[in-house]
Each structure stands twice: as C-alpha cells, then as structure tokens.
Amino acid sequence: MHLGFLSPLLQRPGPWASVYVNTSQIAADAEEQIALQARAAGDQLAGQGADEATCRAVRAACAGLDRGEAGHALFATEGEVVLDVPLTSPPPSPPSTTWASLPRLGPMLDYGERRPPTLVAFVDREGADIRYLGTHGGARPMERVAGQEWPIHRTGRADWSERHFQLAVENTWEENARLIAEHLADDAAEAGAELLVLAGEPRERVAVLDQLPEPLRESAVESEFGGRAAGTDEERLDARVAEARTALSERRAARRYDRFLAGRVETDERGVDAVEGVPALLDAAREHRIDTLLVRLDGPDLHRDVWVGAEPDQLAARRSESAYLGEPEPRPARADDALLRSAAANEAEVVVVAGPVPEEGPFVARDGLPAGGLGALLRWPYQDGVPDGGHRPPGDIPTGGPRAPG
Length: 406
Description:
Blueprint: E1 16-22, H1 31-47, H2 52-63, E2 71-77, E3 80-87, E4 96-100, H3 107-111, E5 118-124, E6 127-133, E7 139-146, H4 160-191, E8 195-200, H5 202-211, H6 214-218, E9 220-223, H7 234-263, E10 272-276, H8 278-286, E11 290-296, E12 305-308, E13 315-316, E14 331-334, H9 335-345, E15 349-353, E16 374-383, E17 386-387
Parallel strand pairs: 5-8, 8-9, 11-15
Antiparallel strand pairs: 1-2, 1-4, 2-3, 5-6, 6-7, 10-16, 11-16, 12-13, 12-14, 16-17
Protein name: Peptide chain release factor 1 (ERF1)
Organism: Streptomyces zhaozhouensis
Pfam families: baeRF_family2
C-alpha cells in the first residue's frame, strides 16, 4: 500500500484530531443515531483538549458522513476537517477519537483497504467501460471507450464480397481492441493501478490482453463474469475482483517479507538492507532510506513513544536528540504514526503482515518478525554500520537539519 492519499496531512503542523467512525450499521433515516455519534466525537475531543473550532468541524463532518461506507477516518486541525478517508472494515462504536501531535494513522491499517488500486474493464466489440477501485474504499467510473461502430457483425454468407466484409469486421474488432488497450495503459499510468481485471466477451478479453503493454499484461487477470450488457453477473464479478486483489496483495507481502528476512543478515557481497526496531527505523526514516515499511499489527513497538518535529523526517527515539533534528520543541508521538507519516512523505510502500494467528487466510509473518512489529527494507544498504559503506547517494540531503553523529 502507498499512502500518497495522506498528502494533505503533511502540510499542517497540528495538533490533530483523528476520528474513526463506524457507519456500517446506521440506517439512511437514522438521523438521531448519527447525531449522537457526531456529538460524542466532538465531546471526546474537547475532553482531550481540542480547540472548540476543531470540535465543531468534526461534529459537522460526522453528521454528514456517507453511510454507504463501512466507516470513515476524519482528520482535522485548526477548525477544519482536512481529510475524510472511507474505510472498508467498520471500526468499533462509539467513535474512536484522538487529539495528538500527529494524525492517528495506525488504525488505517486495521480498517482501511490494503488491496492494490485496480482497473476493471468491461469490454465488447464496440468499446469498453472502465472502473477504478481505489486504495481506500470506493469505486468510480473512469472512462467510456467508444470504438469504431462499423462494420461490427459478421454474416453467414460465403461469396467474395461477404468474405471481404467479414475481413473488415475482423479489422474493426482488432482496431477496437487496440484502442481499448491504449486507453487502459494510459488510465493505469494516470491512476497508479497495480491490477487490471478484464470482464466481458471472451474473444474481446483475449484481443485486448494481447494488445496491452507487457507490464500491464502481466498484472491483468480475466473474469468470465460481468460485462457491458444489462443484467450481467455483477455479484460474481465483484467476488472475482476481490479474490484477485487479495491474492496480489498477499503475493507481494510474502515477497517483501522474504526480502526482509534475507536482508537482515549482512554478507560479504552486500551490507544489511533490512532493519527492525524503532531506533534503526528512525535513523532510516530521517535519511529517507525506507523503501518498504513492514508493520505487524500485534507488535508492541507500534505504541512506543518517539519524538517528532513539524517535518516528517524530524524523528528521534529520545527527546535529547532533538537538537540534531533542527526542532527546538519536539513533541511525543506514537512510533507507528510517526513512521507512517514519514512513509507517506517519502513515497515508501507499507506492507501489513499478520501476527502468528490465524494460521490460514491472510499472509502470516513467521517467528514473530519483524521484532517489535516494525521493520523496513532499505533503498540502499548499510555496510560496516553506515549507509552504503559510508557513501550517501548523490543529492540525498536530509531536510530536518544535521544528522545525529554516529
């Protein structure tokens, strides 16, 4: 999972109100129930020290939430709700609220969507309808592709003129498949889609698949369910899409985890390119070295206190280290929230690995690793205790002030 959607939270200093609201069991006409939740969220924040303007903004936002979603994560500061993220699993009721130095991002991994952004294309001989499924809930139509309209249908005759006509039909089908494939490639690049599901007529699915650029073709799967015509089996298509997204997520998590296990051990050929534990992760985050952050949700280090400044790379394990970070007044924050903020700012991937239970289903980490529940794959390795044998990549200069010595 990439956290680019959290970018609005990186522009404000805070403190932040974070509210996780369960809307999965609220009927469309249950105005009293939603009003109670809204009032409870505001009152809880006020009791934690939030300013009245921010409490009012949260109450108003809670009262107007889309009840078609399982839940929402709201983030507010300075009297404004800055971000509303739909959740795919319902958080507990009543609303969970936090008033803290940083946005409370950890629960996003519990209740938010962990599956890859996906394009679903409904194709036939005349064109395609393309739908986008986002990282954190919600689907939206993205594009309607209209191909050539004539000639489309074959005839049953076999004289020369009809064979010529049928060849023109074949050419129209091929041209429409090429056009659909071009649009899908452009849409996938624009939306950052990591998976493509092709639904619709079998011949057209194959024709479009053959025309896709190789990286997108490798990420594509077909569905025999669903299509452009009314009355197609949307329910079974949704199940196929969910299955494909889960399978891709688990494969990717397993690959990252195997790299993490191998990277923890230094060899003669390379240094250590994976680390675990809060101090090592904070060092890596300050220097923008985290490529993939691994989070085990049952890890004890997730709620460990660290110290942060206004910038995402201003992090320290101890308050006394703040002088090295260019932050005269550091604030305490949870380790998971600080590292997730850093990951969002530096375009690092976040992979959630399950704890030792359950043994089946979601991808499960082995041996309770990463230690403490937090680990990372690095963008370049450590050798002899320093990054890349002591050499920093060109142009990589931390923005949070001088780096702590050693």
